[in-house]
Specification:
By secondary structure, this protein is α/β, with parallel strands linked by helices. The protein has two domains: 193 residues, Thiamin diphosphate (ThDP)-binding fold, Pyr/PP domains (Rossmann fold, 3-Layer(aba) Sandwich), CATH 3.40.50; 128 residues, Rossmann fold, CATH 3.40.50. Helices cover 36% and strands 21% of the residues. The strands form three sheets. It has a seven-stranded mixed β-sheet with strand order 3-2-4-5-7-6-12, with helices on both faces. The chain has a five-stranded mixed β-sheet with strand order 9-11-10-13-14, with helices on both faces. Helix 2 runs parallel beside helix 8, helix 9 packs across helix 13 and helix 10 crosses helix 11. The longest helix has 15 residues. This is 2-oxoisovalerate dehydrogenase subunit beta. Keywords: Oxidoreductase, Thiamine pyrophosphate.
Length: 334
């Protein structure tokens, strides 16, 4: 199908609308793409990311499932091994754990187990992170769990443009992708997106801002506060390079190391708790690959090693702009 036949358009959309656009595009382009999950068909999903899909493609390709995450994951794996390209939605990341056995023991290992005879082109989508005044199981950031698993890609968009392009790439990828959508910026940011079916590269960091004094490394919703911090620091004469990791596994170490070699300093920002977080892997990679370039120790700005608190205390848990600027001032002073 050509772009003209597909109805290409460019418009200002939110992240949630960009996800919906990508799903529409790819389902129209490839009849093997199917979507399944809880309340995703008739109701369009809890965040309305799948609105209009059932009407456009029918109930055979857009399927409401029971409230059974293990079933969702297992069904998607079966579909994928038989030629379909399922996009399976978990309503919240905190609900994904019932499907973890299927994801880790089967989806991630299928290509290796069958010596390439079978593979699993699946996207497991889940809204994740805090900031919407929800209970703790609706506000978790446990991307490090999946980043540790060989055979899985873990992709986290931070803007409408990257949500659109990365989701297209994830659906077209021949192996399973955990696609985590930062829900507190679902509707917080609007961006012009060309609905042209062009994917963005996976396994690649995006340099959002060039700088010379310090490298700020982040992903997901924290990109918003990191860019705001970089603006404030620029007023103080501090030049920040801002990198959106985007694919937290496998990690694009080359981009990170090249940036740190230039700036000599690094601050890592993520919402997840500190212990065993992806930020620790980033810091270790910098220590291994750019140690002699460092002019100060690597600093992390993270959530706390505790369960995400209820909404009154969310702002104390989530990294704030002032936390980032304080960390940068600390490493600049060394």
């Amino acid at each position: 199908m050509s772009k003209a036949e597909h109805g290409e358009e460019t418009r200002d959309v939110t992240l949630v609308e960009a996800v919906n656009m990508a799903l529409h595009w790819e389902m129209a382009r490839d009849e093997n793409v199917v979507v399944l999950g809880e309340d995703i068909a008739t109701n369009g999903g809890v965040f309305r990311t799948t609105v209009g899909l059932k009407e456009a493609f029918g109930f055979k390709r857009v399927m409401d499932t029971p409230l059974a995450e293990n079933l969702i994951a297992g069904t998607a794996i079966g579909m994928a091994t038989q030629g379909l390209k399922p996009v399976a939605e978990f309503q919240f990341m905190g609900f994904i754990y019932a499907g973890v056995e299927q994801i880790i023991s089967h989806a991630a290992r299928m290509r290796n187990r069958t010596r390439g005879r079978l593979h699993c082109p699946i996207v497991f989508r889940a809204p994740f992170g805090g900031g919407i005044h929800a209970p703790e199981h609706h506000s978790e950031s446990t991307e490090a769990l999946f980043a540790h698993i060989p055979g899985l890609r873990v992709v986290i968009p931070s803007s409408p443009q990257r949500a659109y392009g990365l989701l297209l790439a994830a659906i077209r990828n021949p192996d399973p992708v955990i696609f985590l959508e930062p829900k507190r910026i679902y509707r917080a940011v609007t961006q012009t997106v060309a609905n042209n079916g062009e994917a963005l590269p996976l396994d690649t960091c995006f340099t959002l801002r060039e700088g010379d004094d310090v490298t700020l490394i982040t992903w997901g919703a924290c990109v918003l506060e990191t860019l705001q911090a970089a603006d404030q620091l620029a007023e103080q004469g501090v030049s920040c390079e801002v990198i959106d990791v985007a694919t937290v596994s496998p990690l694009d170490r080359d981009t990170l190391l090249c940036s740190v070699a230039k700036t000599g300093r690094a601050v890592i920002i993520h919402e997840a708790c500190r212990n065993g977080g992806v930020g620790a892997e980033v810091a270790a990679s910098i220590a291994e690959g750019a140690f002699l370039d460092l002019q100060a120790p690597v600093v992390r700005v993270t959530g706390y090693d505790t369960v995400m608190p209820y909404y009154r205390n969310e702002q104390y848990y989530l990294p704030q702009v002032e936390d980032i600027t304080r960390a940068v001032e600390q490493v600049i002073a060394l």
